[in-house]
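In this section we walk through a basic example: taking a raw amino acid sequence and producing a predicted 3D structure, encoded as discrete structure tokens. The instruction is simple. Fold the sequence below.
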Amino acid sequence: MTGTGALFEWLWRRSAEELAEQARFALTLREDRYRTLLEHASEGILVLDENGRVQFASAAAERLIGFEPGRVVGRRLAPLTDAAGLRETGPLWRRALERPGERIRTELRSTVRPRALRPGQPTPHIEMTITNCLDHPAVGGIVIHLHDVSDLARTKANYQNLVEESIQGIAVVCRRRVVYANPALRRLFGRPVEGFLGLTIDETFEHVHPDDVGILTGALSGAALPTANTIELRIRRVHDQSWRWIQIRWADAIWEGQRARQIAYADVTAQKELDATRRLEQERLEARIVERTRELEVSQRTLRAQERLAAVGTLAAGVAHQINNPVGAILAASDYALLTAGDEDHPHVAHAALQEIRAQAIRCGKIIRGILQFSRAEPTEKWAGDLVGVLRTAVDVTRRFARDRGASVELEIDRAVAESSVLMSPIELEQVFVNLILNAIQAQTSGAFVRVTARRVDHEIRIRVEDDGPGVPAADRERIFDPFFTTRLKGGGTGLGLSVAHSIIADHGGRMELVPTFLRLECFACFEVVLPLEKPDAGIPVAAA
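The resulting token sequence is shown next.
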């Protein structure tokens, strides 16, 4: 061989060796990479021969089934699970032997205790995928992928227990058919769970009250409804044919990868019965309140009438004074007519006397009619008059009461008041001022001083009744004119005096109020009555300017 040929042969042999070395290095690198991936993978891999003996086990597989590294090779798969697992995996193993290349998935619970488990911790639940690769030249075995699904299995078990043991009935509807029903639904409807599975939505309506079918149809007709929606309807139980009220809620769900709807049923019959009982009791209570209110109104009217009759008795002396004046005028006119019987102008005198007698008799009739109207709480007739006589009569009527309690009453009237005229019912106004004076005297146990003043201001007459008693508490000032409110309940007060007086003054076109404390200097309680003067041209009260 020439030198050139030898050189080319050496170069070729050197290149082949380098290529082989590069190939061996690449293979070693790939094997190392593959081994590293297997060792760090969370999914375990086993390779078994056709007899079920382990030929290869990844580090993750050894960890999952609880063997020391390298100790699982040569063992059979049978000891890795319990009898139930063998019964389940046996047919799958035979199926894998019969169908090369098919992936078969199952789950089992490992019976080998992993070293990493803490005491009391359950053994792992493993998902296993079997693939027959016996014919594959690089594998030559049956490959089993192991994946720890313990957390997912526990979650499923917990959810299933919650649903199965729920006190509410739960159903899942997919493509308008019932695909799941829990035991509570059976108890609610009185029908076996199997009796619900496969039913269409329309077929479940046979349990629903005919009047409520429309409610359910409308609620379930939408493609997607808010989960907050609820409906209530009646259903008939199968075993006893009784009607029960149920409340239904629903929510969108997924069932085996398809859109579905989860429906929850709650028995609210007891709540409905309780609500009906409460409504009945409420109606009875309201009827009783109406009845008692009516009785109270009758009692109040009776008490008001008695208060007015009592006031009439108190004002008897004032009535006598009111009637005494016209009776005296009648006597004087008749006596004068009799004395002038022989005079030449007797016819004229007699005629004038008769007119005076008639006028005074009419006045007496008005006074008597006013007393009767007041006692019956009817609108009283009013006529022009001055307040001087009314105030003097009120003081005279209460003088004896004041003397018995060691009290004194003082009356001060401006000259302008005596020259003014007010459209009034004297008997009613006398009652107002008698009530105010008596209240002022009774404000103290004895020795009270009461001052009554009257003065004219523009187109009004203002009368004040003041005393040196303890005054009216701030908490009572807003209610002092309310009917039946009294601070002298133990002393026999009815709470109607000031209320009636306030109404009388309002009926006369005036106003009555308790003068605020900061406006008073020398008295502790002061009530002010304001009455409008008579309008000369119309004979009706005028408002204050």
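Looking at the output, two observations stand out. Confidence is low (pLDDT under 50) at residues 537-545. The longest helix spans residues 269-314. In the next section we compare this with other chains.
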